[in-house]
Amino acid sequence: MRNIYLLMMSIVTASCMAQTTIELDDPNSYPDAATPIFRTDVNNIRDSFVGVWQNISGSSELTIYIYKIDDIPVGIRGNSGEYFVDALFGYYVYKENGIVIINSLNQAQINNSSSNANHAPFYGITNDGETIEPLYFKDYGIQIQHTDGNYYTKRGVATFSITNPGNTLQANFELKNRSGAGTRIITNGQTIEPYDYTFSIPTSLVLNKISNTPPPL
Q1: Within the chain, how many helices (H) and strands (E) appear?
Q2: Of 22, 75, 121, 142, which has the fewest Cβ atoms less than 10 A away?
Q3: Is the pTM of this model over 0.85?
Q4: Digit-coded pLDDT (tens) for 44-98
């Protein structure tokens, strides 16, 4: 029995050692490691973002719902070590004159056990607890047909920055095309049209945090 116990302990110890864990706000975010790399939010720097944010300007209303998700796989870093990060994700609702133009809740079919943040209307990472950048964002108000015959959702990249970390939180929201957006190449070498289109939702807003608790998904 003692030998079995020692064997089990050695397996557990090896499993614990065979990974590299660093804090989400650690500036050394890309260590050269052959083991899986986990950037973990041990200091809860994501918490200020989690909740419901809203801007009402005249007849337009944009509401953004932000959640936390742990251990998103984001590729390979360092010496072939798989890379995971604790990130933020969510969905949004856009209204004009009280009429819902976009409700991306149905596209937000991921949760804290998901392994694919690409299923979310938006997702991103904060390194300092003040800014989510980049925030990869999908505009469901625009469907673009490429030369491969398929329709794709307009995509952009946003910056979400908390401007007054006091009792009433506000944030600047800036949405733009991805850097270098234009002609893209699909896997068979065929050129598809530029996706450098305008957006169907406001692209520069000040958002007020109206709740610290987003509704359950």
Answers
A1: 1, 13
A2: 75
A3: no
A4: 999 999 999 999 999 999 999 999 988 888 776 666 568 888 999 999 999 999 9
Task: Tell me how far the alpha carbon of residue 147 is from its chain's centroid.
Answer: 28
CA distance 122 to 6: 46
CA 134 to chain centre: 8
C-alpha 196/C-alpha 180 separation (Å) is 9
Contact 135, 92 (CB under 8 A): no
Dihedral angle over CA of 29, 30, 32, 36, nearest 10: 80
The answer to whether the beta carbons of residues 82 and 116 sit under 8 Å apart is no
Residue 194 has which token pair?
């530029």
Which residues, including other chains, have CB under 8 Å from residue 159's CB and lie 6 or more apart?
131, 132, 133, 134, 135, 172, 173, 174
* pLDDT per residue as tens digits for the range 166-200: 677 999 999 998 765 555 555 455 555 555 668 99
CA 175 to chain centre: 14
Phi then psi for residue 75, to 5 deg, are: 115, -155
Identify the residue with better confidence: 28 or 181: 28
- Write phi, then psi, for 167 (nearest 5 degrees): -70, -35
